[in-house]
Amino acid sequence: MDQSAQDAALEARVGWLEQDMHEVKLTLRRPERLIASIQAQIPHLATKAYVERVRGDLETKIAQVRGEVRVDLAKMGGTHLGLVAAGITTGAASLPVLARAFHAGP
C-alpha cells in the first residue's frame, strides 16, 4: 500500500473517531442534566419516616372505619335478614304464577 493510500485511510479512520467522540460527548451530557434534575427534586421528596407515619395513620383510620361498618351491619343485621326472608318467601310463592304466565307449551 503506498503512502497516499495509507494517509487517506488514516484520515478516514480519524474522521470516524472524531464523529464517534462527538456522539459520546453528547451522550454523556444527557445524564449530567438528568442527574442535576433529580438532585433538584430530592429536597421535595417524602422521607421514609414520613411515609411510615402516613401509612400508620391510614391503617388506624381504616381500622376505625372497619369497626364502624361492623357495628352498623350488626345493628341492621336483623332487619336485613327479615327482608331477605320475606323476599325469598314472596319469590317462591310467585313462581307458579310466573311459570303459568310465561309457559309457551300447550
Model description:
- This protein has helices at residues 3-41, 48-102.
- By secondary structure, the chain is an all-alpha fold.
- The protein folds into 2 domains: 1-45; 46-106.
- The longest helix has 55 residues, at 48-102.
- The mean pLDDT is 79.
Unreliable spans are: none
Number of strands: 0
Question: Can you summarize the main beta sheet?
Answer: none
Q: Which structural class best describes the helix and strand composition?
A: mainly alpha
Compute the number of structural domains: 2
Strand fraction equals under 5%
Give Rg in angstroms.
39 Å
Order of helices and strands: HH
In helices, the fraction of residues equals: over 70%
Task: Summarize this structure briefly.
By secondary structure, the chain is mainly alpha-helical. It has helices at 3-41, 48-102.
What keyword list fits this structure?
elongated; 106 residues; mainly alpha
Question: What's the structural blueprint in terms of helices and strands?
Answer:
Elements: H1 3-41, H2 48-102
